[in-house]
Design goal:
- The protein is an all-alpha fold and about 80 residues long.
- About 60% of the residues lie in helices and about 0% in strands.
- The protein is built from 2 helices and no strands.
- The radius of gyration is 16 Å and the shape is elongated.
- The chain has a domain of about 50 residues.
Length: about 80
């Protein structure tokens, strides 16, 4: 388990199987990846803020916004 309570999955060795664009088994795809990244970066931004690492806080917040926007846009497309 990770700090955020998500279970890490072990990916099988590459080779054989589906096309190069298929998500590997156990991978939640780009939506889940962007959501996970947004969650992790938010925690890192809090840590950076606690230690007064201003530039790093700003960069992490920008990464969080980018990941959240990607999730929002992809979920909006799925509803259409």
């Amino acid at each position: 388990m990770t700090k955020t309570g998500r279970r890490r999955t072990r990916l099988p060795p590459s080779g054989g199987g589906g096309s190069p664009t298929d998500d590997p088994p156990g991978d939640g795809g780009p939506d889940e990846a962007a959501s996970f990244i947004a969650e992790c970066v938010a925690e890192l931004a809090l840590l950076a803020r606690r230690h007064k690492l201003g530039v790093l806080v700003r960069l992490l917040e920008m990464a969080q916004l980018e990941a959240e926007e990607r999730v929002r846009l992809r979920s909006k497309r799925k509803l259409s």
